[in-house]
Amino acid sequence: MFLVTETTAGSHTLQLREELLTGHRCKISPARINRRLDTVYRPPPPAPDCPFCREKVFSATPTFSTGDRICVGESVTFPNLFPFAEWHTVTVITARHDAGVFSRSEILDALSGQLQSFSGIGGYKSINWNYLPSAGASIVHPHLQGLADRRPPAIAEQYLLGGVRYLIRNGCSYWDDLVEGERNSPRYLFGDEIFWYAHHVPLGEREVRCILPVSTCEEFSSYLEPFVDGLLRILTFYRELGTYAFNMSVFFDKKKNRNGFSSFCSIISRINPNVSSTSDTAFMERLHLEPVILTLPEDLGRDFGNRK
Ligand SMILES: [Zn+2]
């Protein structure tokens, strides 16, 4: 499933990893965590002009062509005012500007709002979350983004195409083989039908993936509750590690095909917001497309196991 080359850089160990299906590569340099770039999390200051707070959300945000927004519990879903996809929505997750800890019902309602908004929409869909400005959120108030395009996101396309090739060559699903292999690895976190593990060639720091037993957004609705339970466990784990900011994406196939694809969720932790604008993303991530990772996935799996 992946190749590891271990080398030394100065007095430190360096791993080069490559995922065979996609060709995705990363470098893992555990010693770099000693730079201690991350700072202690401090809640964001109040924002009196926040367009997603209750006083403004129903006047400052657009409506769908029906003239409505989708409301499920406290969540409110509407079109993105500045879209970068053919279909691009925003779901304000909760009325609370600084959510602190998310409740099960808040995330369930928000994801349900996303799924409702996708009803009747074609294309390749994804549900995404940038949490906190250091993870790229332009508005602190917690919100999801739903995207649908006629072409899949680049990373999903690699897995879709790679999955078909794997199925043709091996006569079985890449994802089934992946789950079987990871189940007994030090990267395994929890779950079975909904399978959570520390990804072996991470896209970002402390990447956790969830493999879903479905391929489309429509099928996902049956698994929302156990998915949210798992997601909350990961967010709690991140916070125990001192990291609050994160990115999350859930990728879907366009329609239910026998092409060997499983929907999956990827979550990476990000540096906490800081006053000097120190970033955890630089030329390696942005120009080389080869992230430098600090935490070995096997160490993440061990840390998770130790906290149970
Ligand atoms: Zn707000």
Describe the structure.
The chain is 28% helix and 24% strand. It has 308 residues and is α+β, with helices and mostly antiparallel strands. It has 2 domains: 2-36 and 152-307, HIT-like (HIT family, subunit A, 2-Layer Sandwich); 54-149, HIT-like (HIT family, subunit A, 2-Layer Sandwich), CATH 3.30.428. A 10-stranded antiparallel sheet has the order 4-5-6-8-7-12-13-11-10-9, sandwiched between helices. Strands 1-2-3-14 form a 4-stranded mixed sheet, with no helix packed on it. The longest helix is centred in the middle third of the chain and has 17 residues, at 154-170. The chain is globular, with a radius of gyration of 19 Å. The chain starts with a strand and ends with a helix. The model has no long low-confidence stretch (mean pLDDT 95). It binds zinc ion. Zinc ion binds at residues 47, 50, 52-53, 97, 141.
